[in-house]
Amino acid sequence: MKVLVVEDDPAVSEPLLAGLQRNGIDTEHVGYASQVVLAAQGVDVVLLDLGLPDGDGIDVLRELRRVSDVPVIIATARGDETDRIVGLELGADDYVVKPFSVRELAARVRAVARRRRVDSTLETGRVVVDRSQHRVSVDGSPIELTAKEFDLLAVLAEEPGRAVPRQELFSRVWDPVWVGTGKTLDVHVASLRKKLGDPELIETVRGVGYRLAVDTA
Ligand code: CA
Questions:
Q1: pLDDT digits (tens, 9 = 90+) for 139-166
Q2: Which residues of 175-211 are buried (b: 16+ CB within 10 A; e: fewer)?
Q3: What is the pTM of this model?
Q4: Are residues 16 and 111 in the same domain?
Q5: Do 126 and 168 fall within a single domain?
Q6: DSSP secondary structure string, 18-32?
Q7: What is the distance in A from the centroid of ligand 1 to the CA of 77?
Q8: Is 13 helix (H, G, I), strand (E, B) or coil?
Q9: How far is CA 184 from the centre of its chain?
C-alpha cells in the first residue's frame, strides 16, 4: 500500500509521512500542484492538500481525474465546506479536515482503497483471489473454501505482507464486536492453511495477528 502525500507545509507533511510509515503504509511526497499527476502513477491512494503554492488543489483534482481513477482523499481547512463539496463532486473519494490524526487518515486510506477493490481480483503471487466470482487458486490450481475462509483470505490478500491485527480480521469476517478469545479465528486459519497446501503462506505475527506471505514462490 503506497500513498502519495501532496502537501506543501513541512510542518504537516513530515509528521504525516513518518506516521503513515509507522502504520505500515509506504509514502511518496510532493509539495507542488504541477508534480501531482506524474507522481500519482503507481500509488494506491492520493492525499491531496487543496492549498498549494503553485495552483489550486481543485484544479489538480480535475486534471488528475482526466487521466486516473486512483482513490483521492482531499485535505481541507476546517469550515471550508465549498471545497469539500466541489472536491467530492469532482470525484474525490473522501476528505479529512485539518488538523486530522494519522490514525484517522490511515483508516480512511485503507477504507477508500478497499472500496475500490471490492469486486477486483487480488493477485499476490501464488495466491489469486477473485472476489466477483468467489474463486481462489494457488499456483493456478483452484481451491475450495468455505465462505468464512474465503472472506478471511480476501482480507489478508488485500495487502500481502501487512500484519493484519486479530481484531481487524475478526471484526471484518465475523462480527464488528470482538467477543471471547477469537479461537474461531485460529481454527479458520488452521483450516485455511491446510487447504492452501502450504502453511507458510499465512504467517503468524506474534502479538499482532496474521499476514499473507509475499514472494514465497
Ligand atoms: Ca497547503
A1: 999 999 998 999 999 999 988 889 999 9
A2: eeeeeeeeeebeebbeebbeebeeeebbbeeeeebbb
A3: 0.64
A4: yes
A5: yes
A6: HHHHHTT-EEEEE-S
A7: 9
A8: helix
A9: 25
Q: For residue 176, how far is its CA from the centre of ligand 1 (angstroms)?
A: 36
Apex CA 83: angle with CA 65 and CA 113, to 5°? Answer: 45
* pLDDT confidence band for 216 (50 / 70 / 90): very low
**Ligand 1 centroid distance, CA of 115 (Å):** 27
- The three grid cell numbers given for residue 35, joined into one nine-digit string: 508534480
Residue-number span of the structural domain to which 9 is assigned: 2-117
Number of domains in the chain: 2
Q: Which amino acid is at 155?
A: V
DSSP bridge partners of 46: 4, 72
Q: How far is the CA of 99 from the centre of ligand 1 (A)?
A: 12
**CA 207 to ligand 1 center in whole angstroms:** 39
The cell for 40 is: 500519482
Distance from the Cα of residue 26 to its chain's centroid = 11
